[in-house]
Amino acid sequence: MRDEALIDSVAIVETDSVFVGRPNAIAVDDGEQRRLAFFDRASMEARGSFAIGGFNTSIRGWRNGLVVGALMADSGTAFALVRDTVSAPARGGSVPRIYTEHPPIAQAFGAVELARDDSVVVGVFEAAGRMYRWHLGSSAIDSVTLDAGGGPNAKRGAKPDVMLELLRDPSKASTLAFTWSFPMLVGVLSNDRSALVTYDPTLRSSNFTGPAHVQVVDWRRRKSCGELQLPVSAEIPGRYALRGDTLIALVQHADGDATSTWIVRWVIGAGRC
Prior knowledge:
Blueprint: E1 10-14, E2 17-21, E3 25-30, E4 35-40, E5 46-51, E6 55-62, E7 65-72, E8 77-82, E9 90-92, H1 97-101, H2 103-108, E10 112-116, E11 120-125, E12 130-135, E13 141-145, H3 160-168, H4 173-176, E14 182-188, E15 193-199, E16 202-204, E17 207-209, E18 212-218, E19 223-224, E20 228-229, E21 239-243, E22 246-255, E23 258-267
Antiparallel strand pairs: 1-2, 2-3, 3-4, 4-5, 6-7, 7-8, 8-9, 10-11, 11-12, 12-13, 14-15, 15-18, 16-17, 18-19, 18-20, 21-22, 22-23
C-alpha cells in the first residue's frame, strides 16, 4: 500500500461503525460483525476485510497503518495492528486481571482507547484505573495508576467494583450504570508523557450529559498528574483529537432547539505534569 498510506484524517462515529477517512481508502470498523473492512475512497469498491474479534471500541491511524482496540480476554491481547489491506492484523498488548478473572466484564465494559508512535502503544481500559504502555518489538510493559483528584470538579474514575456488582445484580442498573469515567481519547505527547481524555456521563431523559477531563501521565517519573475539567459544554459529548501537544475538540452548545458547533484547541504544556 505504498500509494495508500493510512494517514489519520477523519473519524465519524455512527451507530456501531467507525468510518476513518484515508487519502485513497476508507476503513470501516463494524462493531456488530467485529470486522475491519477497506473500501476504495473513489469507487467505494471493497478492498478486503479482516476479523478483528474482541470488543472493538477505537480505531486510530498511524503512518501507514492502524491500531484497533480489540480486547480479547481469552488470549490476553488488547489491540490489533493493521499494516495494510492484505496482511492479517498483528495482535498485541496485555489485559488487566479484572477481564481475565471475570470474562463477562470484557463484553459489558470492555472499552479501550489507544494511541501509538514509532515504538509504543499506549492504552486505557474502561474497567481499570491505570494507563498502560506496551513497547513494540519487546515484551516490556509499563503502567501508571490514574489518580483521581479531589473536589467537586474531579472526574469519577474507573469503578470496577461497581461493574462487578452490576453483573451480579442487573436490577441495580438504574442507580449504578454510567457512574464511572469513560475513556474518550488517549494520546502520545512525547517520549515521556501521554494524555487521557475522559467523560463522566449522566443519562437525562434520552440524552447523555456530563463533563470531560484531561489528565497527563509522566512515564519517566511514573506518576499521573491531577486531571483538569475541560471548559466545554456538558450538554452534548464532544469529539476529541490530539496532535503533538495540542488537544482539539469538536463541541456543540445547545440553546433551546438550536445548536452551535465549535472547534476548540488547547496546548497541553509541560507544566501540566
